[in-house]
Amino acid sequence: MHEPRAAEKDTPYWWEASPLKPLPQQTVPKKLDVLIVGAGYAGLSAGLVLAREGRSVAAFDAMNPGEGASTRNGGITSGTIRPDYATITRRFGEEKAQAIEAEGKIAREFLYDFIKTEGLACDFQLVGQFKGAFGYEQYETMARSAETLAKRLRIESYAVPYAEQRSYTGTDVYRGGTVRLDIGGLHPAKFHAELLRVALASGVAVHARTPVISIERDGSGFGVVTSAGSVQARQVLVCTNGYTDGAVPFLRRRLVPVRSRIIATEELAPDVMARLMPKRMMMTENRQVGFYYRPSPDGTRILLGGRDSSRVGNPVAPKLMLRKGLANLFPELESVRLSHSWFGNVAMNRDMLPRIFEKDGVVYASGFCGSGVVWAPWIGMHAAHKLMGNHERARTAFDFRPPASIPLYRGDPWFMPAMIWGYRMQDRFALWRDRR
């Protein structure tokens, strides 16, 4: 057997059908109603709302718009909240936990309606999501949770016993799982390109490759220094996430960039896809550091992602780890060629909740914790209404105090490899305990 190869390309698979299109450089305005830092999903969504309400608004991005996580993610509309209901209740109270859980349903429904209403051509398909269980005890717990979710929020969610698992996935690794039918998939680069299109058409000025250097209070507004000149802005909205830099040190001390890597297979035969992904669902696992995977929008490939503990460069080891994970799930793909492997930064915070908050007059919309396809547009638009004083439309369970800062952290996540290793050990112990 030959040694498995790394992927043919180190750029996102999504860029094949929707390549990044650099915007022309433009003159920086002297004055603005609202200056937005970041032109990903959150920044563009906020800008769209503001511009349509007659505000002069410009978004500044240090890279090409969308070059970060907005065109590198898996395109799964999960809207996952990392802490479970009990943990949120213990930390913030039951009222907050109920509001957060309910808002997830509303945010997904809003996204689907937004895509339809705005005519965003992004290959969206509401196919559902299967979540695999490791061990029968875990399956029983997940089955009860699915039943509770269906009763409490009227989301179509149900358990899939091991005997029926092959109708949903072509792997025998799991011991059953659960399904949610309110989750789908889209093409993330096309979604960003379409969002950029409607934002520009609505009057949002987008400045590419123009990093913000500093933000200072200046009378009733702000003086913002960018690489292309200074701007006087009445209000500032920061929508950076996994690529937050030193221009916003308060946020940088609270968000940890974590690499998430995805591999894409070569095109697979139709009978192979039908066997391995029979319902074309989005797929995930009940582990702290598990895999997520899905068919490509055209149904010809499998894309699989997971956390990457590397911090610099583009090492081969994480690619081979994902390849090994793919082969473990689907042994017949052990020798399959990988067409693409890439990574992007997601942003985690100490309580693992997205949020809107205000500090010294600057509004922040950030911390999407790996679920930005749903949360970034939702949080960005609510932040825009907050800036305009539209209190009812700005109302959200995610508008509360800033996340806590991380001791001894100033932007270099030196501790992440050890943390990911620890999570993997916890997963192994949980698997051993459940399968005794």
Task: Determine the N-to-C terminus distance.
Answer: 33 Å
Task: Tell me which CATH architecture applies here.
Answer: 3-Layer(bba) Sandwich
The CATH homology group name? FAD/NAD(P)-binding domain
Q: Could you state the order of secondary-structure elements as H and E?
A: HEHEHHEHEEHEEEEHEHEEEHEEEHHH
Which residue ranges are poorly predicted, with pLDDT under 50 across at least 5 consecutive positions? none
Shape call = globular
Structural class by SSE content = alpha/beta
How big is the Rg? 21 Å
* Percentage of residues assigned to helices: 25-40%
CATH class category name: Alpha Beta
Q: Averaged pLDDT, please?
A: 93
What is the CATH topology assignment?
FAD/NAD(P)-binding domain
Domains, number: 1
Tell me the total number of β-strands: 16
Largest sheet: 8 strands, mixed
Please give a structural write-up.
The protein has 436 residues and is an alpha/beta fold. The protein has a single domain (14-128, 182-434), classed as 3-Layer(bba) Sandwich (FAD/NAD(P)-binding domain). The protein is built from twelve helices and 16 strands. It has helices spanning 14-17, 41-52, 85-92, 94-118, 136-153, 188-201, 249-252, 270-276, 317-329, 372-388, 391-394, 416-434, and strands spanning 31-37, 57-60, 129-132, 157-160, 177-180, 205-207, 212-218, 221-226, 229-238, 256-265, 282-285, 292-295, 302-308, 338-348, 355-359, 362-366. Strands 1, 2, 6, 7, 8, 9, 15 and 16 form an eight-stranded mixed beta sheet that branches. Strands 4-5-3-11-12-13-10-14 form an eight-stranded mixed beta sheet, sandwiched between helices. A hairpin with a 2-residue loop joins strand 15 (355-359) and strand 16 (362-366). It is globular and about 65 Å long. The two termini are 33 Å apart. The relative contact order is 0.20.
